[in-house]
């Protein structure tokens, strides 16, 4: 199975209102609710691709119970979430019905105790032997040490399980230094990590910091990938219009599934780009338009810039 | 005991954000959560005044479980809520930390089936014999017939239990016609009911529609009350600044507690006005500033305009 880690899971709530006007009262016309957090979105896409997936991370409180109830009905996803005392956070997306514009309100997440953090590390170690790959996804809840992902990267490497890291800020900086197999920053995260806004330069710099492969997401323009085997750029055939939330999670799912299926890098990148575009066409994170994906995957352009990158 | 009915209970969530800006993303800095809905606020104030209170209405889903867990820790309030399949609604108050301005997002509430509505009516009938008074509070969830309050008023009257109705729109219009002992509209609700924006005229008209006593809330200017015994105006000593949410619920608690304690009308009105002002001084609905209340209650002015109102 593929293991995805979401330390700061969320109950993702979407409200439709005619138009959000600050300091007034709104009747919400439509409410939807689903299990959220990057690793849970990745898991749903992997399951839809036919992979066995196990999700872990923290879950707690009434919101956590609601999340787990809903997760139980997602086929192909095994729940190995670890209980905490604090409640799982909510995220609220308020969509203006007329324009589709979204206002986001994100709770911080439960305060995790050091005993709870140790309990998670034990659970993670127990899950790794059965995993063909692991993805570490998203922000850290309060109380979890900033070096948490670095620790989880080292544990995966000790267990010889390929590990992908998708986070930002200081947890990314420390996590990269622990030498994950793959990091997948977007351009903002990459610039924050390296200080460079030039994607080629920044990707190279991110790799120098320790990641074996860096796949930089350029949003609608596709992906840049750099590792010891080459330096590629993968571009979708045309830009797509829709909801970009979860597009990055689909990139992670594409890369991980390609890894465990033993695809060559150009095929992994084509899959990741096509899944990402197909998820922009789906209304919610963690889903994708399957027929669009099957069409797009044959029309992604992958350019190889450099066959052999210097080893360092 | 005093019975309060809240058909559309709510989990009231308050978010603090630095400043709400539509179509951007916000990290919520503070989250609070409490049992909500007008009847639950009324119950908390009554319990704080030393009364035994039972709350009923509908409750369901994960949000309902959270509401009941929190209600269990409120001393003096007995939970007699009736389960439904649909989830209890959330209300979200987004407070701008800098200015205190609030943006409100209200979910519609669970869809109640006709079997669930019948189950509620049975539970209500079973509770009435032990009740010294009953308050029917707030909006109706989807699926509950618009004449629901009229029915509940008639049932209370058949059981000889004094009944107060605090709602708006068509449920108020129909409920008034069933001749409740008391209605407590605010000026907007009164104008909607009667077509008149002149409070004296509108109060008189509301009484003519069937309520034995009409207590109109004029916000910071106090109360107008009209029944067969007289026509009063109760005015607080000075306007207070604060959070007006829940001020109307404190009026209801003041009136009900005065009723079951057998206070004369001027004392009931003084209590209601003082509680209302003291609840504006408290940060959340269902609470009040006790020392402010004890000070204010001796300084409310009650003017009697007319000793004997025509019977009709």
Automatic annotation (TrEMBL), chains A, B:
Keywords, ordered alphabetically: ATP-binding, Kinase, Nucleotide-binding, Transferase
Domain of life: Bacteria
Entry annotated with the keyword Nucleotide-binding: yes
Pfam families assigned: PfkB
Segments forming domain Carbohydrate kinase PfkB: 13-283
Keyword Ribosomal protein applies: no
PANTHER family, alphabetized: 1-PHOSPHOFRUCTOKINASE (PTHR46566:SF5), 1-PHOSPHOFRUCTOKINASE-RELATED (PTHR46566)
Family: Belongs to the carbohydrate kinase PfkB family.
Protein name: 1-phosphofructokinase family hexose kinase
Species per Swiss-Prot/TrEMBL record: Streptomyces xiangluensis
